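User: Fold this; tokens only.

Assistant: Input:
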Amino acid sequence: MNLSPEKERKGFLDPPTSYSQPKCYTKTKDVVKSVQCYELVNVLLSQQRPDISVCDEVTGRCVEVSSSDELVISEISGNEVFISVKEGDRVKRGDRLGYIITGKERCGAL
């Protein structure tokens, strides 16, 4: 039986839209605005950064980031990147956040 590539993948590798995606918001004064989460990098790097919220509707948890909070943005790159925590998970300094597989087949921890 020959299946089209789409039917072959169906149920095996579902598109990301079929999973619960976080919802992201910016807050300035009394205005709450929904934004695409990938836009948050530019929002966080702006000079007049608003407060933001990243919410996981499945767990009902939100992470609030105030405009006065100190942030560090880290770029993660590798041949393959596996993140083992979700938005809203509690992490401490020294916790592993995921793994990177390099082009030389080496594995590193985040």
